[in-house]
């Protein structure tokens, strides 16, 4: 049987991973172009992870591992994805990007 702390860790893990479920749904869309959505979605995932502050060592370790992996694979943001997002009217102002990634 799981302890209360373990149940809380599971709840926190679900909260941590929920946006990844939504991102997977967005990226697997076959009826629309996804390149323009890729950059804003991944930037939002990184922001989400950066805003997670848990008392649980397990949650912090999972968060740090995912952040390290995303950072190593996603740094710098692919310029073609940024161009596609810029050309899409939904993301015209590139508010999801830092000034460093826009330059």
TrEMBL record:
Species of origin reads Gigaspora margarita
Bilayer-spanning residue ranges: none
Per the record, GO CC terms? Answer: nucleus
Task: State the protein's name.
Answer: Zinc finger BED domain-containing protein 1
Q: What's a BP term from Gene Ontology annotated to this protein?
A: regulation of transcription by RNA polymerase II
């Amino acid at each position: 049987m799981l302890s209360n702390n373990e149940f809380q860790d599971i709840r926190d893990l679900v909260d941590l991973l929920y946006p990844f479920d939504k991102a997977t749904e967005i990226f697997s869309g076959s009826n629309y172009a996804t390149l323009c959505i890729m950059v804003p979605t991944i930037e939002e995932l990184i922001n989400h992870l950066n805003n997670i502050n848990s008392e649980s060592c397990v949650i912090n370790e999972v968060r740090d591992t995912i952040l390290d992996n995303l950072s190593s694979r996603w740094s710098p943001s692919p310029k073609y994805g940024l161009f596609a997002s810029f050309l899409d009217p939904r993301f015209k102002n590139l508010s999801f990007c830092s000034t460093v990634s826009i330059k």
